[in-house]
Amino acid sequence: MTFEWIQIPYALLTLFIVVNYGLLMTALIQKIGARAGRRYGIPIYQNYFDLMKNYALRTHITHGVMFYLGPVFRLSGGVGLLLFVPTIYGSVMFSNLSFAGDLILALYFVFFGTLGMALGAGESGHPHAAIGVSRGLSQVTTAELPFALAVFAVALQYQTLSITEIVAAQQGGFMNWTLFTNPLAVAAGMLGFLGSMMRPPFDVVLAPQEIPIGPPTEYHSSYLALMQTNRVIFPVAKIVVYMNLFFGGASNWPVFGLKVFLMYLFSAFVGVVFPRFRVEQSVRWFLVWAVPIGIAAILVV
């Protein structure tokens, strides 16, 4: 497809819808997790109040330019991933800024935010920043490896790097979904999906029960608000990629909302059931279980 300037307002509309849906869905998922632990959980509207409060705050503390560019890069990764991937199949309005090679660009955007946060943490001056960077890059790299193998298998299967064409090949009934035509690729991709969502048992970066420091405490005011905004955009954007590649995409917003919620609930369910891994356990798990399945998916294709 060719780029047209009229697509920009529609892409911004998509961003507006996803931000609000993400704010409500993440609060609902937190409430479901709390109820599983016999707690009440936060109100559904809590995320809106937190964002408004933090965006209104300012700081006089400085750690260097790169430290404060970290949240900007992190948010850019989530927004870029969302805007360069078609949201609604067959819709001119909500095809966003997708083009022929958007699958490769999506892979770059998935990793872009993590690298930005690593650079920001490196300038924080905190003696334990290197530990956080090593945790984050180790986790993300090993989690994205099976996903990359699954993406290569899907690209070979459909002979295209266009996400729109991949979704088009899955139309005609749910039996045409990649879930049924290439289950090994979907299995590898979904195992990597669990790690990329940074929920238990793969939340080794924040490790809230172990490390009382890190981005949620080092960053504050509007910089923390940028990270909170990314937390509602980036998971949805990644789920849109998985939905388009493996589950037939979405032809309208109700189907979009249902599929995104069910995939998000899948990661939340795994997080409630299983305790958190240590760093070496997480890396070993992906290399032993997820990566071989991804390799097998390529060999089968």
Overall description:
This protein has helices spanning about 5-35, 45-55, 65-85, 100-120, 130-160, 165-170, 180, 185-195, 215-220, 220-245, 255-275, 280-300. The protein is globular, with a radius of gyration of 19 Å. It has 12 helices and no strands. It is about 70% helix and about 0% strand. It has about 300 residues and is mainly α. The mean pLDDT is about 85. The longest helix is centred in the first third of the chain and has 30 residues, at about 5-35.
Features:
mainly alpha; single chain; 301 residues; 0% strand
Q: Provide the structure class.
A: mainly alpha
Helix fraction bin: 55-70%
Q: How many helical stretches?
A: 12
- SSE pattern, N- to C-terminal: HHHHHHHHHHHH
**Residue windows where pLDDT falls under 50 for at least 5 positions:** none
Q: Beta-sheet strand percentage?
A: under 5%
Distance between the termini: 27 Å
Mean pLDDT: 86
Tell me about the largest β-sheet. none
How many strand elements? 0
Shape: globular
Radius of gyration: 19 Å
Oligomeric state: single chain
